[in-house]
Amino acid sequence: MVNDRVVDLTHPLQEDAKVRILTNRDPEALTVYRHSTAHLLAAAVTQLFPSVQCGIGPPTDEGFFYDFVVPRPFVPEDLEAIEKRMKEIAAGDFIYERQMWPRDEAIRFFRERGEPLKVQLIEEKTEGQKDVSVYTIKDRDLFVDFCVGPHVPTSGKLKAFKLLNTSNAYWKGDARNQPMQRVYGTAFFSEKDLQAYLTQVEEAKKRDHRKLGRDLGLFAFHQWAPGATFWLDKGTTLYNLLANYMRGVLFPAGYVEVKTPLIYNKALWERSGHWKHYRKDMFLIESENETMSVKPMNCPGHFLTYASQVHSYRDLPLRFHEQTPLHRNEASGVLSGLVRARQFSQDDAHCFVTPEQIGEEVERLIQLVQRVYGDFGLPFEAKLSTMPDEHMGEASTWDHAEAQLKVALERAGMRYTINAKDGAFYGPKIDFDVTDAIGRKWQCATIQLDYMQPENFDLKYTGADNAEHRPVVIHRAIFGSFERFIAILIEHYAGAFPLWLAPVQAVVLPIADRHVAYAHTVSQRLAEAGFRMQVDERQEKIGYKIREAQLQKIPYMLVVGDREAAEGAVAVRSRSGGDLGSQPLDAFVASACDEVNRKSSQLSAISSQQLEA
Ligand SMILES: [Zn+2]
Ligand SMILES: [Zn+2]
User: Fold this and answer.
1) CA-based torsion, 613, 550, 493, 597: positive or negative
2) What are phi and psi of 263, to 5 degrees?
3) How many CA within 13 A on the CB side of residue 121?
4) What is the DSSP-derived secondary structure letter of residue 317?
5) Cα(105) to centroid of ligand 1, in Å?
6) Among 74, 293, 349, 479, who pairs with 321 as Cys (CB 3.0-4.6 Å)?
7) pLDDT, tens digit, for every residue of 198-229?
8) Ligand 2 centroid to residue 449 C-alpha, Å
9) Among the listed residues 377, 345, 346, 341, the one whose alpha carbon sits nearest the alpha carbon of residue 448
10) φ, ψ dihedrals at 82, nearest 5°
């Protein structure tokens, strides 16, 4: 890296410069590596299919792709052959050579080679330049690509890559342009990392919340309500459990719950700035010649709520929690199950604090985050985003706020990284990423300081000096949205929710008709102890009922026959541990209550089982 720009290792140093050599540990290095693998892909494709035209081949978060114009779509056998050729070229350890060609010559070269798209790229991207950079890989044919680089020095550096699939694409992503075939692949520094990634992809497919949501009867979607969830009874149970869990965490921490309107006059959005910056993502409604909008977020409603009463410094911190639905007019093409929805609710809150209270309030918030993710068995990490170049307010206010956030993170014992200049323009923030059971990271919680909206909405409190002061607002959510968090939990637990979260916690399975009455006695006893119960009365074989309950991932199956009915017992089978033998009903109730209170998850057992399956 020279002067903060990634370049080739062979880059000539013409003057004094800040130089850093990238290693496998640098994220930029993986990007270079993957982009170089895309060149390898194009070299292999042009050797095997001489009539193709090459488009672009960028790296992505997950790997890389390359677009080609081909006479017929690629089939899986093509991918195998291409990957094999890529391995041969890699093994040849050919040099990725950067050459500067006169622009005219480069255009003529690609035109003669039948690559009009490359000609177009050069003409668009290098207007006014005398020379353009190309990269060559010299194998049986010379592969030349127009590219600014950088790349690995030789193809032999590329050791662990795999082609994944193909899809239809268009030149420049525009359906009016030439149709192309996109080949996706991924690459890692080691075979071990590549295999771990491929295992994760397979495991993620099995855990896909859209599939499990259907199989477990949690929710549905319909094309007439794009991006909005139909919560079925079991899904609604899960949703309400989480909503009430969050209330149970927040109320003792000093929050109050409010409910604010869903639809507001556009005047509110003009005041908050959303009309200017966010209007295209809002659903608009006409009413009595006024333009109204369904709220995409709670903040402005909470400011009006705050301003509806007079506040003294003694009332602060004041913490409003709200779970009402929000709507964002996302393009239908980007919607994805519960993860990207048009209608969702957040475990949202706004804390109104004095400037002196910021540090302590943020520390309390971090402790809440630690407690909540701990209850779900989700490891997490924190990122502190600091003042961007474009910001409002004095640099000294920012310094003070950032210093308080750092102290709060340290006092809460949180390790964190710094995202320099990545704060919102109205204040610094802390974001939290959780890591699920198969190692994927999801950003969920956020704690965001805001100095601007209290100004916009003229929010105030009376200080101890009897004068008026501005509070600072802290926007914060821990789950993020309920919908997305539920998607994460479904995939994290692979649908096998821990006992405290399972929509149905136990099913009673009578062996024969004569045991049905006792089965209901058992179910009733557990329901009175607060458990969510089912009785499977169907005249099916007991083995069949057990298998069905297992597929529904119900934590406990309580088999009852003559002996259990006579002894007031249940034969317990656990979803994860198999047959646990016969127990007195009271003993089972006590141990199940204990398991719910501990919120223990059998996650490690479940995930290793899943990986073996
Ligand atoms: Zn390149
Ligand atoms: Zn907010």
Assistant:
1) negative
2) -125, 130
3) 20
4) S
5) 19
6) 349
7) 998 888 899 999 999 999 999 999 999 999 99
8) 10
9) 346
10) -65, -45
